[in-house]
């Protein structure tokens, strides 16, 4: 088995005492492989814009990868996102993971005057966004005419120096098939896709990959998990909680479902301590269990 990868949530919250750069540097020092940020620009809770924040953070770290988890496609023109991604990946030394999603919150789209796509339109838009990015990154004068998005004889230069990975957070049958056919990674959330649902979902992805002529290992599975290392914590249905040994045992079991790593979302106000405990007390046990 290839080495597991471990990521850490980097909140976009604007709150007293919280510094995303300091948190990112801590994650890097602790040995995490990547950090990721969700994309919810509209709402009453103060927050930073995801892309801008990750650009700032990438400039002040050196090794750890930065991931969007996941950009809502309807917020930004896909061709422009492709251009933005090439620039950030180049400036960061090839550390970008481009996470894309069809868009979760209809209320946010409505508030921003973007219109509210149907579930089918969200899947169409996600598929088209991936195809546009890949085309612009690899072909001159690229044209694409989709149901939602298109480009016409578009040139994006320079081209990426390597394949920028595109991860998606998908759940429905059409979106899972899209994942197998087009994406480099699948990052479902524990709360939306509990362990008992994962085998059937992976089967859908792998069947689509085979149909598209892609090997099963072309799609990296990363489980986005709410987590708390605490012997006294009360169990929660959508969160992995317990002492270090208990948490590690549960995570090792989830690896058995086909995941190659995790993105951790620490629960509680002691986020920095949780990150430290995960890195020093849990991750070594998980690696040993699945070696």
TrEMBL record:
The keyword Flavoprotein applies. Coiled coil: none annotated. It comes from Rugosimonospora africana. Keywords: Flavoprotein, FMN, Monooxygenase, Oxidoreductase. This is N5,N10-methylene tetrahydromethanopterin reductase. The gene is hmd_6. SUPFAM superfamilies: Bacterial luciferase-like. InterPro entries: Luciferase-like_dom, Luciferase-like_sf, SsuD_RutA_monooxygenase. GO terms for biological process: alkanesulfonate catabolic process. GO terms for molecular function: alkanesulfonate monooxygenase activity. Residues 21-233 form the Luciferase-like domain. It comes from the Bacteria.
